[in-house]
Design brief:
- The structure is a homodimer.
- Helix content of chain A is about 30%, strand content about 20%.
- The first copy, chain A, has six helices and ten strands.
- Chain A has helices at about 5-15, 20-40, 105-115, 190-200, 200-205, 210-215, and strands at about 55-60, 65, 75-80, 95-100, 120-130, 135, 135-140, 140-155, 165-170, 180.
- Chain A has a five-stranded antiparallel beta sheet.
- Chain A starts with a helix and ends in a 5-residue tail after the last helix.
- At the A-B interface, helix 2, strand 3, strand 4, strand 7 and strand 8 of A face helix 2, strand 3, strand 4, strand 7 and strand 8 of B.
Chain lengths: ~220, ~220
């Protein structure tokens, strides 16, 4: 139950809609379930590399600072979920590509252990659907960058967050994105959220073939 | 005209179809046009880092050796064109996601100069469309890795290839991919190819927002 608290508000900010719908929670699960569930067994006491090298920094108020120079675009790409408008009339909740990245240190740890270390950062950059018709056929081609979100796993900094993951939304507008993003506060959520999140663990992890293929397979 | 020679056979191998169709050439252009056109002004004499650090290796027969441990998945991701079957009945020529990566050294050079250095490697890994229906809506979600292709720019190794780019297809089957891939030999192509390739330069570069955003903007 606790797991849904931050995820719910995270989605509220994205959707400007209430928490508790299967749709919104499931989308969140699709983006981050693989992270949450695979990291659930890591405790601060046993996690390796606990903040040894932070991929991101926070300001004095605890806001997440945007990595300089779009650094995440040189991190490890893990997948691009897409639910376009034309398949979800009249309007998809998330009509853009979501290019999802993980910081390289966390990826290396994940390859080795199958678990996400403290300090893992997952960044999701939103990309508009650009062209939908090319000589190669009808389809979807990435247009422009239109938003930035992130989640950070840090047991020391977020001891009360589910799995120690905290969620941040920088912008749902084109770059330049704001310099910092506030932590999305925890909030209550109904059982529908929980059910969707729990039962779709396996389903949603298959959106990230890079992680699935690398998990615990050594370096 | 010369530009189409290698691209034609490269596509032939992929499509098992003849060269000369707008479709096949345009698809090729979509994958690699950004590379070809932006690199066209680089000559072996002026390019920096000419093979100073090769991102890939070749065997004694000149075959491209597959990077170890799926190393390209830790390179810089640049985009994922998608032309799914359901939008291209009865069968899309390329129904899968194409996750496209560039080696980090070439990306750094491209950011600095807006041009691709000698030794640039672009790798395209094919990913099946997995789920098309999730709680978040109808859409496209990456399934499994199902193929690997590459192009390498190297004026010394490929002096006669257009722009010094050579094309390789490792596999259109799931991993493990073959250890090596042969150079796709040059072949003739008709003027329709040329026209499609030329006029879609601008159009196809917009499939790679990461490159477009970084081009020549410094480090």
């Amino acid at each position: 139950m606790k797991t849904q608290k931050s995820s719910a508000l995270f989605l509220d900010a994205m959707l400007s809609a209430i928490c508790g719908t299967m749709l919104s929670t499931a989308l969140f699960a699709g983006l981050f379930t693989v992270v949450y569930f695979t990291s659930a067994t890591i405790t601060p006491a046993t996690a390796k590399g606990d903040n040894a090298k932070e991929a991101v920094e926070f300001d004095a108020q605890g806001n997440l600072i945007q990595p300089d120079n779009f650094a995440w675009r040189e991190w490890v790409y893990i997948g691009s979920p897409l639910t376009p408008n034309d398949l979800n009339p009249p309007q998809a909740s998330f009509p853009e590509f979501h290019n999802v990245y993980i910081n390289p240190e966390a990826y290396a740890h994940y390859k080795q252990t199958g678990k996400f270390p403290q300090g893992t950062v997952i960044i999701k950059e939103l990309v508009s659907v650009g062209s939908t018709q090319a000589s190669s056929g009808k389809g979807y081609f990435q247009g422009d960058f239109i938003g930035l979100e992130a989640t950070v796993k840090d047991a020391k900094r977020f001891p009360d967050e589910p799995g120690n993951w905290a969620y941040f939304t920088f912008s749902h507008e084109p770059a330049p994105y704001p310099r910092t993003a506030k932590l999305q506060p925890a909030a209550s959520c109904n059982m529908a959220c929980h059910q969707a999140l729990a039962e779709d663990d396996w389903v949603f992890t298959q959106y990230y073939p890079v992680l699935r293929d690398a998990k615990g397979k050594g370096m």
